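Collaborator request, handled under Task 6.
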Amino acid sequence: MLNLLQLDLISLRLLVLTADSENLTKAAESAHMTVSAASKRLAEMERVTDCTLFVRLARGLQLTPAGRGLAEHARHILEGAQRMAHDASDYASGVRGHVRLFANTSAIIQFLPDDLATFLTANPHVRIGLEEALSDMTIQAVEDGRADIGIFADNVPAPRLQRRPFRRDRLVVLAPQDHPLAMRETVTLADTLDFDYVALNQGSSLLRRIGDAAAGTGKILKVRIQVSSFDGICRMINAGLGIGILPLGSVHPELLVSKLRAIPIEGDWATRTLFVGVADPQRLSPEAANLFNYLSQLE
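Structure tokens returned to the collaborator:
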């Protein structure tokens, strides 16, 4: 069995650099060592692992399956070492704890900038690692232990999490100002389903919510274009490529002044609750528990 103590971080970094460039000279330059020293390190790694990592070609190197696999492991090890160095630096400068927070796009765009700014002002020695993810992925990250806290939409099941209400938002139809719906004070979802939609990509809780509501009307949601962000939806709608449904708080106010119209949607389904959830409140660090309690009192 391979003894990990025989592998050092310099050699692992060289392995990754060589895998990325498939050129020993370029990898050696990036690692600030001579070609001969780099070649010696790679040969030693092949000896230690008892694997051929590269096939030497006239114009460079080609990874073997073993080389690809070990290079990916090396990336994870280096990322972990980098995180450890950052954490050590934070602790040395007075940071007392780290909290890993996953949240869906709606929460990040509408609420978290101000909410986290307020929290961190009162808790300056806490470091929050925030990652944007779909609601499904956010819930999975909390369940797997990759996140301490998750914020997700109400229409995504989270039976293994302890959840509390975080915020509520209101969905609106977004349309160009010259669109036939733009003069309406309110619309029903059925009113909109004769028109092409710009929507988020598959997997988003918002698209699922709209699709479920459309199915209840007996009509089909006609998605013309799918994009990965709320800003992308706004741009496509502004270009006349369709209408869309977004949380009102996610739309830049200036767009509603000169380019687009936000039309309220009739029906309870257009009011959403975002939840904040954890796997087990009793097992949170003091810093994570403090943030969880803070976020769950903002509704």
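The cover message to the collaborator said: "The first helix runs from residue 9 to 21. The radius of gyration is 25 Å. Please let us know whether this matches your experimental observations."
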